[in-house]
From TrEMBL:
Pfam families listed in its UniProt record: TEX47 (PF24787)
Name of the protein in question: BLUF domain-containing protein
Database matches in InterPro entries: Acylphosphatase-like_dom_sf, BLUF_domain, TEX47-like
SUPFAM superfamilies: Acylphosphatase/BLUF domain-like
Record Gene3D superfamilies: 3.30.70.100
GO molecular function: blue light photoreceptor activity; FAD binding
Protein origin, superkingdom: Eukaryota
Gene source species: Zootermopsis nevadensis
Domain BLUF, first and last residues per copy: 25-125
């Protein structure tokens, strides 16, 4: 009797089954500035977006943690690629509509295919940040050291909250400034990261999902050079109905191709 051959697809499905998942999980951590006070508060604003995304029968729900100060915040979002993208699109839809008091936002780190979530649900809190000691956040040479410092603090904070029981977690969240002040990113640290030109703007990160870049290696073997790797404009308007969110895809800027100068 011949042994049944297993494909890579079979292995992926088995791992999803063991992990009780539908698709791959990802984690995005981004920092930003805001001017929320009350009605809504910062937490209420993001909580509404998270609840809206999770109510749309997602493949993997959004979970995470929002840590915010008077004018700055750090947000951890966990979910599938689709749900994270819906979250970002909703945020910027509200910004463009004048309904969100958010300023500059930059991506600290993106983790693909994470082993497990830090959080089983989404929550957030306002805290009092500690003062920054022992480092100079104004030095451009320290950009990645500062990114590492901020992400490390958020990871330690996430691990601390993950260790709390369901009964004690709300109490722990309300007293972060007193119990684990060293796990909170400092104001000067976040201000530096927001002003860094090295870190990717959150809107640009969102738009990456809509742009397929043609590698220069492809251009060397193709003539004439194509404007886009994938043609989006080949269907009639009435034929777009079966494509998911195609109107947003078509509205996105296409990737410009830099041709190498002829010698």
């Amino acid at each position: 009797m011949t042994e049944k051959r297993r494909s890579v697809y079979d292995l992926v499905k088995e791992r999803f089954r063991i992990g009780e998942r539908v698709t791959y999980l990802h984690r995005v951590i981004y920092v930003g500035e805001h001017s929320f006070s009350e009605n809504p508060t910062m937490k209420q604003f993001f909580e509404g977006i998270i609840m809206e995304v999770n109510s749309q029968d997602p493949d993997e729900i959004l979970t995470g943690f929002l840590l915010y100060y008077h004018k700055l915040f750090v947000h951890i979002v966990e979910g599938s690629e689709a749900t994270i993208l819906r979250h970002l699109r909703r945020v910027y839809a509200l910004i463009d509509g004048g309904e969100a008091r958010l300023g500059t936002m930059r991506v600290l780190i993106v983790c693909h295919n994470i082993n497990e979530r830090f959080f089983k649900q989404w929550t957030g809190c306002m805290a009092r940040p500690p003062s920054l000691e022992g480092t100079d956040p104004t030095c451009d040479a320290q950009t990645w050291q500062n990114v590492r410092a901020c992400v490390t603090k958020m990871y330690k904070l996430s691990a601390f909250l993950n260790q709390q029981s369901m009964v004690n977690v709300n109490t722990a969240i309300d007293h972060l400034s007193q119990t684990v002040p060293t796990y909170l990113p400092e104001i000067d640290l976040l201000t530096f990261l927001l002003g860094s030109k090295v870190l990717l703007d959150l809107r640009k990160y969102m738009n990456i999902y809509f742009i397929i870049v043609t590698r220069k290696s492809y251009q060397e073997s193709i003539w004439p050079i194509q404007a886009e790797l994938v043609p989006f404009q080949f269907l009639n308007p009435e034929e777009y109905t079966f494509l998911c969110d195609v109107e947003d895809v078509l509205a996105r800027p296409t990737a410009s191709i830099e041709t190498e100068p002829q010698s």
